[in-house]
Amino acid sequence: MKRIQLSHGGGGQEMNQLINRLFFRHLGNDILLRTEDAAVLECNGSVAMTTDSFTVSPLFFAGGNIGKLAVAGTVNDLAMMGAEPQYLSCSFIIEEGLLLDELEQIVKSMAEELTVSGARIVCGDTKVVPKGCADGLFINTTGIGHIRQPGISARNVCPGDAILISRDIGCHGACLLSARESLRLSSPLQSDCATLWPVIHACIEQNIPIHSLRDATRGGISAVLNEWCEASKVQLSLDEEAIPVSDHVRGVCELFGFDPYDLANEGTFVMAVPTDAADAALAVLKAFSGQAAIVGRAEAATPNKVILNSPWGSRRYLDLPGGELLPRIC
User: Fold this and answer.
1) Which of 83, 161, 166, 246 could staple 78 via S-S, CB 3.0–4.6 A?
2) Where are the alpha helices (DSSP H) in the chain?
3) What is the reported pTM?
């Protein structure tokens, strides 16, 4: 089997072959193939820009791999600002010895995921580091998107807003944990890794007045909702029974002592909309996932915290996760 060598990052013949036969073959477009030092882009109106680095372990997991994750994660950050993803940069830091077949599988999955949003990789970089200096592959991406619905912000949650979740939570974190511990589950558990622009675009097309959006990645919905409380100075009251959690995720959490609200997601978002728009928003979300739900509301109350209401009438704070629950999940 062919493996990545240091010469693949040396700027010579091997590197040229790697870029042309692998990256350009799968990711090529009219901008990228110009091979200039910088991409020249057409941007009209307000744009959103984001950057992210991906160091997930393992590189391949049920439902995706680091390449799919890099594209979806960057595109989703743009979508959460109401921005249509347009352009991405991509840098690969490859460890000497990585199988070329694995690298090609990762790049192919990136090309496939790009078709979901229509975004294009327009510039990039490749570095190869000696064996032991990286864990297989690290990917850095930057994205630019045209804002289609302005005004979406973590600071715009208003008292009376309904809080919605787009699907069941915790799948990515539970999937990664299961893979690392070599668990053989009786039922398949897959990461929710996915591009979210199609559902956000559908909400915008239906004129849903979105106040706030956030994909619940590291720290899960606990982190997102607590950030909203702080940024918007509201209290969020959640119905614990309404929050969608699969039995598979609950089982993994019980086995390892985790809280599903703290687990990472890579294709799940939280939305705040006015109460009178909640049913319309839910209808759009359910067209993409049957697990979407209205899970709570925002209130003008103190302290500015998340309150979790149990089916038995008890209440507790849903605090920010403490410590590093599960490193290297994205």
Assistant:
1) 83
2) 13-18, 24-27, 66-79, 100-117, 171-180, 197-205, 220-232, 247-256, 278-288
3) 0.96
| Interval 234-288: pLDDT, tens | 999 999 999 999 999 999 999 888 999 999 999 999 999 999 999 999 999 999 9
Q: How far apart are CA 296 and CA 261, in angstroms?
A: 14
Q: What is the pLDDT of residues 191-210, one digit of tens each?
A: 999 999 999 999 999 999 99
Provide the β-strand partners of residue 229.
Answer: none
DSSP character at residue 148 = S
| Type of residue at 228 | W
**Can you give the three-state secondary structure of 149-187, one letter per residue?**
CCCCCHHHCCCCCEEEECCCCCHHHHHHHHHHCCCCCCC
The number of C-alpha atoms within 13 Å of 275 and in the hemisphere containing its C-beta is 7
Task: Please write down the long-range contacts of 175-182, taking CB distance under 8 Å and 24 or more positions apart.
Answer: 175/61, 175/62, 175/63, 176/56, 176/57, 176/58, 176/61, 176/264, 176/326, 176/329, 177/252, 177/256, 177/258, 177/326, 178/252, 179/58, 179/61, 179/62, 180/57, 180/58, 181/256
Confidence of residue 51 (pLDDT cuts 50, 70, 90): very high
Kind plus residue range of the DSSP H or E element containing 84: strand 83-95
